[in-house]
Amino acid sequence: MASKVQTAPDEFRDHISTVDEEGKRVWVYPKKPKGKLYNYRKYVSYLLLVLLFAGPFTKINGLPLLMLNVVERKFVIFGVLFWPQDFFIMVVAFLTMVVFIILFTVVYGRIFCGWVCPQTIFMEMVFRRIEYAIEGDYTKQRALDKMPWNAEKIGKKSAKITIFLLISFLISNLFLAYIIGIDELQKIITDGPLEHKAGFGALLLFTGAFFWVFAWFREQVCTIVCPYGRLQGVMQDKKTVVVAYDYGRGEPRGKLRKNQERTEGDCIDCHQCVQVCPTGIDIRNGAQQLECINCTACVDACNDIMRIIEKPEGLIRYESEQALETGKKWTFFTPRVMGYTAVLAILLTALTTLLLTRDDAEATILRTPGQLYQKTEQGHIKNLYNISVINKTNHEMPLTLKLIDKEGTIKVIGNELILPAQGIAEGVFFTEIAKADLTGMNSEIEIGVYHGDELITTTDTKFLGPAN
Ligand code: SF4
Ligand code: SF4
């Protein structure tokens, strides 16, 4: 439908809706949403919550599905263990994720914010619903906050705070499980706080942070803090699909009056879309508002009204700004989308290749400092080396070392090299090579690290010998 009316000047974009002119917080009391899309969001959030809570307990080859242990610099993604030595793979993975997010946002706007983001899911589908259950819908909540402290207010507020704290503690356990792993978390729980003061301290700190976010800070995470939200303006364009008000059809808005022929547009100015908005905005001001998390609550609210006044649904709907302006159908493959898709395909190919060719272990072999070479009775030359091997699997591996590109022997000093699961093995060994096989004072040699007959990694190092 062609554009007829621009609903409002753009000054609403100069400030955020939850801060008044004096810079004070305007508390948002959103009306309890209901409707088809809200129900779908509930089902999606149940599924995602189950996956989120099952994540730390789900293991692949004994390793968790996801663990980001920044303390020990150990990362597990889909059961694959990454060490800081895999930094370049992590960089490519990170770049791939960033391009994927940009591509997704260019095409579908903030659909992630409304349907998948843990902040929205916990806020709107967990904490907010508990609040509705205890304090009632928005008018009752407002009245409760205004009333003086009495038995009813104290009872309701303490019930809410207690439940919020318990859920925050639960989320904090989950969060920690994704950092240190469920086994370590179980140790903190079973051994008691005194045995794990740092871990227990972290649990309390996270609990406090989550409680503060969900009980007080709320939508400001999306409107003020979230970097993804801040970047919307540069990622989206007029072809991006967003939750938008069809001003061509809705304007000029006007109240519905009995026994009066309607000359205005379809918007009856009932404010239902504004009342349900969890970020406190009016979607009718214009598309692509910074605070809009595309939660679709206003879509449901307006569709309800449209059904009542017997007008077609979709006055507020998923639509691109361009489609609203021109009435043309939404096109997926724009040059920008094709460009991002090509970059994403290249990055995905690189990432897959790196993952498929990644060794199960990584060895660092260095000549022992302060040692030159030794001559044996047979006239062979010996060098002493230090070896450090990192295990990227969850299996213990006894290791043997062999020269790959030269004849010679390797003798490990002391105990056999055993590489513990997810761990590091260190040792010292002699390499002995016939003098005739050396290429000079400083020869390149390649050493293979074997688990049984399987060559798990190779590494190059220097071998010192006499000048002639
Ligand atoms: S404007 Fe609509 S979609 Fe956007 S945050 Fe508010 S209710 Fe959700
Ligand atoms: S809910 Fe629909 S009809 Fe009511 S004010 Fe919003 S856009 Fe207009």
From TrEMBL:
<dbReference type="InterPro" id="IPR014116">
    <property type="entry name" value="Cyt_c_oxidase_cbb3_FixG"/>
</dbReference>
<feature type="transmembrane region" description="Helical">
    <location>
        <begin position="337"/>
        <end position="356"/>
    </location>
</feature>
<dbReference type="InterPro" id="IPR032879">
    <property type="entry name" value="FixG_C"/>
</dbReference>
<feature type="domain" description="4Fe-4S ferredoxin-type">
    <location>
        <begin position="258"/>
        <end position="286"/>
    </location>
</feature>
<feature type="transmembrane region" description="Helical">
    <location>
        <begin position="87"/>
        <end position="108"/>
    </location>
</feature>
<dbReference type="InterPro" id="IPR013783">
    <property type="entry name" value="Ig-like_fold"/>
</dbReference>
<dbReference type="Pfam" id="PF11614">
    <property type="entry name" value="FixG_C"/>
</dbReference>
<keyword id="KW-0479">Metal-binding</keyword>
<feature type="transmembrane region" description="Helical">
    <location>
        <begin position="161"/>
        <end position="180"/>
    </location>
</feature>
<dbReference type="InterPro" id="IPR017900">
    <property type="entry name" value="4Fe4S_Fe_S_CS"/>
</dbReference>
<dbReference type="Pfam" id="PF13746">
    <property type="entry name" value="Fer4_18"/>
</dbReference>
<keyword id="KW-0249">Electron transport</keyword>
<keyword id="KW-0813">Transport</keyword>
<keyword id="KW-0411">Iron-sulfur</keyword>
<keyword id="KW-0408">Iron</keyword>
<dbReference type="InterPro" id="IPR017896">
    <property type="entry name" value="4Fe4S_Fe-S-bd"/>
</dbReference>
<dbReference type="InterPro" id="IPR051684">
    <property type="entry name" value="Electron_Trans/Redox"/>
</dbReference>
<keyword id="KW-0812">Transmembrane</keyword>
<dbReference type="Pfam" id="PF12801">
    <property type="entry name" value="Fer4_5"/>
</dbReference>
<protein>
    <submittedName>
        <fullName>Cytochrome c oxidase accessory protein CcoG</fullName>
    </submittedName>
</protein>
<feature type="transmembrane region" description="Helical">
    <location>
        <begin position="200"/>
        <end position="217"/>
    </location>
</feature>
<keyword id="KW-0004">4Fe-4S</keyword>
<feature type="transmembrane region" description="Helical">
    <location>
        <begin position="43"/>
        <end position="67"/>
    </location>
</feature>
<keyword id="KW-0472">Membrane</keyword>
<keyword id="KW-1133">Transmembrane helix</keyword>
